[in-house]
Amino acid sequence: MLFGFVALACLLSLSEVLATSVPKNTAPTFPIPESEQRNWSPYSPYFPLAEYKAPPAGCQINQVNIIQRHGARFPTSGATTRIKAGLTKLQGVQNFTDAKFNFIKSFKYDLGNSDLVPFGAAQSFDAGQEAFARYSKLVSKNNLPFIRADGSDRVVDSATNWTAGFASASHNTVQPKLNLILPQTGNDTLEDNMCPAAGDSDPQVNAWLAVAFPSITARLNAAAPSVNLTDTDAFNLVSLCAFLTVSKEKKSDFCTLFEGIPGSFEAFAYGGDLDKFYGTGYGQELGPVQGVGYVNELIARLTNSAVRDNTQTNRTLDASPVTFPLNKTFYADFSHDNLMVAVFSAMGLFRQPAPLSTSVPNPWRTWRTSSLVPFSGRMVVERLSCFGTTKVRVLVQDQVQPLEFCGGDRNGLCTLAKFVESQTFARSDGAGDFEKCFATSA
Prior knowledge:
This protein is of the alpha/beta class. It is built from 17 helices and eight strands.
């Protein structure tokens, strides 16, 4: 069976999730400043960007749509290879000239591959609790949220931990389940795997590394004679601070090491910003089109009408009221950072006045990966009735978005009609960009 209703076990048992859970809607308890954690870029833990604001008087939420990134995970196989390349060089050094590096001699790399870590499961559980507390009036035991997940194990596990948190917050009176897993082998609006002609962000990230990392790399090489680390090695070694901290739930010695090298985390963070902007964001010609399918599904739910899309959607699934119901008040989808970046870009969120520079970061930019897609990051689209008019509000990490593209007011509200009208890129199937995804060079 390629699709259908599913009920998979959580990565962790409920008792394990509860044991590792962090306080709802608060920063992680790692003894590391929030400012540093926000410089971990896509590996930053979730932080709310603002305190949630209830809708203005006269407005009642009647539908909510959540798309959420999986919780904190181990490095992917590719990241593991890159991290180990630099680590192996360092561990070949007999004597370091800086005592801060001595821990590396006995360091054992024992991280898993791609899977959710206990802290990531707790993040998802927490998010489920928060969602019930905030939107409990939209659900009941007979009106459960409809929940989908991309087929990746870490995404499925995030979804099931979220449902456990939701049920726990309701004292088990409302017990949602993961209704549908979208197979990665087919059309999948929760994964960015359907645009083979799309480029990547390597040129822009490498250009930045050549500007920002030589001094950092030089400090590392000075402490480790003859190691000859590259700027790429240094960049990947910084990520060990984040991965080890979220997996061990204690501050890694690599964090302390790079805290002693000024600018390390800031340089790493901007590399992550460039990676997403030029990967599936505005800086990649075929980036935003990879979010079109999800946006069209969102429009269908908001307007209670059939999905109209010729891009990533699975037409069989989206045509069935079992696998794509249109009568729900609560939807939750679980996905990946790259796909969510594509969705933001397709919608028109976080648009920059100019492309991100590969040499001089704009301190006023709103495109910061740790704010857009941290571990367990989410976008919430609320549909509201305001004095008889249907309106839409969008929140990312609890921060209300201005929605200037559809005439958003001071409360971030625009009419549903104007919101739908503003999504011309999605409603036109990407204005020809989706066809370019499959173009071959002559």
